[in-house]
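Sequence in, structure out.
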Amino acid sequence: MFATIARLSYRFRWPVLIAGVILFVVGAVYSGGVFNVLKPGGYDDPGTESYKARQLSIEKFGVGSADLVALYTAEDGLITDPANAAAVAAAAERAILHESVVLALGAFNTGASQFVSQDGRRTFVVFTLAGEEGEKIDATEELTEVLVAEGPVVTEFGGEIPVFEAFNTTIEKDLRRAELLAFPLTALLLVLIFRSLIAAAVPLILGALGIVLALSLLRIIASTTSISLFALNVVTVLGLGLAIDYSLFILNRYREEVPEWGVEEAIVRAVNTTGRAVAFSGVTLATSLIGLFVFPQVFLRSMAIGGIAVAILAVLIAITVLPALLGVLGGNIERLRIPWFGGGDEAEAQPESGFWHAIAFGVMRRPVLIAVTVIAFLLLLGVPFLRFNPSKQDARALPAGEEARAVSEVLDSEFQPHETTPHFAVVESREEPGAPESIEALFNYNEMLLALPGIARVDSVFGLAPGLSLAEYQGLFAQQSLDADPQLAAGFALFVSENFVRFSLISDFQIDDAEGQRQVADLRAVPPPGDADVLVGGNAADLFDTKESIKSKLPLTLGIIGVATFVVLFLVFGSVTLPLKAMLMNLMSLTASFGAIVFIFQDGRLEGLLNYDSLGTIDVTLPLLMFAIVFGLSMDYEVLMLSRVREEYVRTGDNTLAVARGLEKTGRLITSAAALLVVVIAAFATSDIALMKALGVGMALAVAIDA
């Protein structure tokens, strides 16, 4: 099959290349709109309690996420001074007339002190908006114009939609910077590897095609299913990196074969041998990503969909467009040589000699000692992973200086922390909530919530008139009392809808620290009022449930990845031991890179060098993503080397000589390919987004260690 594909690509080389150019031009235009179709977040598992609680809160109370937060700072005097307060109120009242505003809460309409900062200079208004993400983004653009207060009051914006927009803008800038870094650096490395400008240009051309088609493919996929914004970086780095690596492998084999066989036959032989290995490498990567489909989170599924599509795309480019390009270039592939660049051509031309040949025999003389030493060292590097502290992406992951992050920091430092990210409990009562027996059960539940360690405040119907006795509350919330007091009725409606009652809890603990996570479990352990059903949600609960969701499905995921990868490698090599050995070594390199990521990013090492602020946590999905991507990605080198070893064994029948010659033929190539891939990944690791930076550094380390 591969020989046939190669021969057809060669014979129809001009139509294939023209089609490639057309795809590049169309893709370059079409891919520009990819940012408009990607979605924020995607961490939620629809089956979890926190997700159901949030949906119920939105449905019954109009209270969901803090979609938009307007922060007002008085430049002169206090924000509560009449002129300043009037300016804020006027801006907020203009905003609530917008059709997208479901709920707006602030000092202007509640008079609550929690909306005013401790020094009295700031206040905020939080908005819940209607619609899907795109509609909320459009509404936010309009609202930010009318929410600007007049007079000596500074207006800034935060909340989930501005945070998402900041992520979007930052990732777009990151991609442009990464591409500007990756292409010249890989060009330099390719010139060093091939010592020919023409040969060096070939992988770059295919890399450019790969990245354009990858982004176009992502846009097509995102138009039919939800794709997370964060998939963009992974798809781009794989699209560029794999296209360059795969073309490097085949091009190197072609250059080796062409002196003896001529252009057409060399292309056929290169694709039929190395091209076959490349195809199985791509299938292995795609197979390892299949395990992510076990998870219901859009974020993880997006990575799987994008990664699988790009892996297949990179293989197709390598076995169709590359042979056509080589056919057109013919003998010109070696033109524009730079002889004064050092290279390994001479070493490779000398059989049974050279550095890699010596390495192979050196390792085979003491295989047990070297294997034990290497495994022990890699496990030692992985020790820091034992203190892995998971979290989720929020405004803190944005670069310093972003307005949305600055607003979030002010809200946590100058107001009661977590005012816009509280715990909440939605109670579904079997009885009428205003009935005396229901009020008693809800009152007792409220008191139990207040008694929990670390709960600073509970906002509920009982906060509308604090300090009353149970009997007084039963009288206050009687229907006739509500009918007689419209202001009380409006406050009551914030917390009671039909037979549903909402409690909002402000915590002293951080969302992602151990105490904050234990607090979620404590909240859910509080006995429900009467025979009511209770759902507990909030950002801390989201993280708690995400961790539990991933933990519960992790064994199945690892099993799928392991079995699928083993089957693919078994089909390649027809051996049981070779796939197991390859998988074991990949696990070792991943373990080491996991430990390094915790040591660098969670522990705050190299903050200055890598330009990031450590939060003392790592994104909860990072190890899983690294495992799925790198486990398959690192198999490239295993498949390439072992395929060449098998070729030599079939030719010579000597296992020792086959290993030595296989490593001799592929050692420099694999090192070069790994260096190229590390450079590409490292360019994308310059991202200003903490998750993307950590993922890039982790992938680069894993690839380097594995090579």
